[in-house]
Structures are given as C-alpha cells and as structure tokens.
Amino acid sequence: MTRILVVDDEPQILRALRINLAARHYEVAVAPDGASALRAAVDATPDLVILDLGLPDLDGVDVIHGLRGWTTVPIIVLSGRAGNQDKIEALDAGADDYVTKPFGIDELLARVRAVTRRTAIQEAELATIELGDHVIDLTSKTVSGDVRLTPTEWHILELLLRNPGKLISQRQVLTEVWGSRFVKETHYLRQYMAQLRRKLERDPAHPEHLITEPGMGYRFTP
Amino acid sequence: MTRILVVDDEPQILRALRINLAARHYEVAVAPDGASALRAAVDATPDLVILDLGLPDLDGVDVIHGLRGWTTVPIIVLSGRAGNQDKIEALDAGADDYVTKPFGIDELLARVRAVTRRTAIQEAELATIELGDHVIDLTSKTVSGDVRLTPTEWHILELLLRNPGKLISQRQVLTEVWGSRFVKETHYLRQYMAQLRRKLERDPAHPEHLITEPGMGYRFTP
DNA sequence: CGAATCTTGACGGGATCCGTACACAGGGGG
DNA sequence: CCCCCTGTGTACGGATCCCGTCAAGATTCG
C-alpha cells in the first residue's frame, strides 16, 4: 500500500486531495504546515510527498532540504506562482516533479503514478535500463547494438537514467557535467541532448524517452 | 551464505544496515573505522564490503587500497558528498560501485544483489579465457601458441580479463600497475596496450578484444 | 657482457569538444 | 493580426585533446 503525505495550508485543497487519493486506494496523511510536515514524514514514513510551496511557516525549499537530509522519498511540488525561478530552485533542492496551480486532479494523479513507478523500477533493477530499442548498462558503460558514447554523453545520460521519471533542471546538468561556472551555457546541453537522441531514440525528432520540459529541463521516461 | 562487512562510523546507519541485511539472510560483520575494517576483512573474509568514505581515522581511498593489496573482494562505497572527484578516486582505487547518501535501503540492496551476481559469474568463468586465436590461463600464467608475456603485460592483461566487458579507466590501470603517482603517465599504458595487441590480437591495427574507449579507458570484450 | 624489459620522448591522424550561427515553434504585447 | 522575444533544435568548422606508433636511452638480470 502506497502512503502519500500531503502538505498544504488550504483546507479545501487538502480535502480534495485526500478524497481523490483515497478513492485511488492510496493511504493518505496530511499536514498543514512545514514543521508538522517534517514531523509527519518521520512518523508516517510516506512513499511520496506532495508539497505546496506556499506554506505559512517555512519556505518550501527549506522543507525539501529538511527532507533530503535523511531520505530520498519522492517529492512532487505544488505552487501557485507560475514563475520559473521557484520551480528551478525546488528541483535543484531535490524535488522530483512540479505541478502549477490551478491543476487538474488527473494531471496530478498522472505524476503520482509516474513517480511511484520510477522508484519501483529503481528498486527492482538498476543494472540495465531499456531505452527504445537499446539496452544500456551503466556499470559496464555499454549500449546494445554497436552504439558508442563519448565521455560527456555518458555523463549526461547517467544523470538522467539514475533518476528515471524525475525532472532534472538544465542548471543541474550543467553544474554536474561542466561545473557551476557554466550554468549559462545551455547550448552545450542542447548540443549533447540532440546527439544522445540521434544515437538512442527511434525517431530523434520526436523523442519518446529523453523528453524536454520547456523552460525547466529534461526528463528520462522509461 | 554471503558475508558482508559494513564499515561506517555513524551508529544509526550501521544499525539500519545490519538489521536490513540480516533480514535478507546476509551474514553481517561491522566495523566503525578504517583500522578495524582492515582487521575485520582478514578475520571475517567477507564476500562483499560496504564502505563509508567519511571515516574518522583513515581516508576511505586508503582503505580501498589496503584491501586491494591482497584481495579482490567487491567493494560498494558510500559517500555523503556527491562530488565527482571522490567518486572517480574511489572507483579508480578499485571500488565496484558507488552510492551517494542519502540513499534508499532498497537501492543499496539492489546494488548488493548486482555486485554479488556479477562476481559469482566472474569466478565461475575465470579458469581459462579465449582471446582471438589464443587461450589464456590466468592461474598458471600461460598463453597458448608460444606467446610469452612480461610481468607488466600480465598485470595489465589480468586486470582487464578479470572484468570482462567492463570499462576500466586508464587511471585504474595506472594506479593498479604503477601506483597512484603515475596517473598522468598515460603513455606507459599506450605502449603496453600496443604490445599486448601485437602479441594477442589477430589484427593489431583493428583489435577485436582489447578495445579502446576514447577518453575513458579500455575494455576486454570476450 | 648481452638481451630482455622498462622508461622516455616525439609526432601524426582522428575523434571530441567548443563556439558561432541560424531555423523553428510558442506566447505575449503592441 | 503581426511582430518580437524566449527557448529549443540543428548544422558546421576550427581548436584541442587523445591515442597509436616509432625510436631510442636506461635499467635489470641472467
């Protein structure tokens, strides 16, 4: 049984989510602010956290940091502001996905399924990963079918594949691969994403697994 | 029964791992620092070592070297820092896998299964190895067909052949064969790889088994 | 002493990376 | 409605790095 912790200060949203999630047979715990959210995460050990960024007591990013200090539980962030800066900060802090209010309940449920599926995959097997027609082995650095990748390509691909389904900000990739001085050089990244798609995707013009989230980053969808 | 030695200075982590591993029917030994870890590795002869890099007494990389001096026991490294430099140093020193804290216990268990499975396969197939037209016996250090190898050539070849299909970085070979002060002297390695290919490959100009992965290292392909 | 082995140095070809440039799509505002 | 602007995908050429190879001096060991 999947346990979900919902953190939001608006009673209506809290109620709507509890009802909808319970109807899908999720076990739901709720918290109205950041402090009680951190306590509830310890007590309830949820499998997923849905976190509103606009809390009365703590900054949402601080809550993410508080959780990431000791757990890798997936976090889906909700925010009323559509600004990109918030989203990127949340993702860099370690959030897994992001939904902007107002949102349809179906959209949220789809993200919930995506995230829970990703952790299930990770637990089951991380030796080899399938991507389109290819099988990728991260430990031995091999790709099926006579595909060869350069060091930089491996570096980027590994970051995405080790976080299946998770939205990775461009900033995250650039600091990881090139270093923090290169966060502005997004064209490096575009270059290599195109290269990876050419080598791995069935139809590079319409990628199925190495997905772009405009304004945000990239995502590997199994 | 698989014996696992867990080395970590944080009591909580030590306890969590012991309980979780014992529940999966692994036999668990623990050590709180580097010195006792090296002793415990002698006494308990573990089949796998889980090693935290942030130990109070010794640098984690030194512990890896201390173990690698006399055993090929698989090592999974834990680290609090996500920095790439640590990761590269640990893997070059001879670690088999790398997990960043905080980590899910299921992720670690998956890696444990992956590593034990890999080494089990490896040991079973280690008697004699075919490479092109030649048959190589690592225990008796002989090659079929009147081919003689020098000590240094054996050292390099053995490292590659004991990790079939796996990518071995140049740093790894250099530290293993010449010592860590020689990681810059890649031309040593080029020299000997050419030598090995001349002696073993059908067409040394187009090697089929001792493969170069540009920018990364070498790989033995069976 | 001599032969095998190990250590250096230098050089050319090729792959990779970097930087610039341009086409295209979508959204917002004039 | 059109234009601009942002964000993205794609192409191309030069600079740089990496690797294989030849050659030769130094060292070890029989």
Summarize the SSE layout with pairings:
Two copies of one chain form a homodimer.
Chain A: E1 3-7, H1 11-23, E2 27-31, H2 34-44, E3 48-52, H3 60-68, E4 75-79, H4 84-93, E5 97-100, H5 105-124, E6 128-131, E7 134-137, E8 142-143, H6 151-161, E9 167-169, H7 170-177, H8 186-200, E10 210-213, E11 217-220
Helix pairs in contact in A: 2-3, 6-8
Chain B binds a DNA duplex (30 and 30 nucleotides) through helix 8.
Could you explain the architecture of this structure?
Two copies of one chain form a homodimer. Chain A folds into two domains: 3-122, Rossmann fold (3-Layer(aba) Sandwich), CATH 3.40.50; 125-220, Winged helix-like DNA-binding domain superfamily/Winged helix DNA-binding domain (Arc Repressor Mutant, subunit A, Orthogonal Bundle), CATH 1.10.10. Chain A is of the alpha/beta class and 222 residues long. Chain A starts with a strand and ends with a strand. In chain A, strands 2-1-3-4-5 form a five-stranded parallel beta sheet, with helices on both faces. A three-stranded antiparallel beta sheet of chain A has the order 6-7-8, with no helix packed on it. The model of chain A has no long low-confidence stretch (mean pLDDT 87). In chain A, strand 10 (210-213) and strand 11 form a beta hairpin. Chain A contains eight helices and eleven strands. The A-B interface holds A 68-72, 119, 122-127, 139-142, 148, 150-151, 154, 176 and B 84, 97, 102-104, 106-107, 109-111, 114, 118, 165-167, 213-216, 219. Chain B binds a DNA duplex (30 and 30 nucleotides) through helix 8.
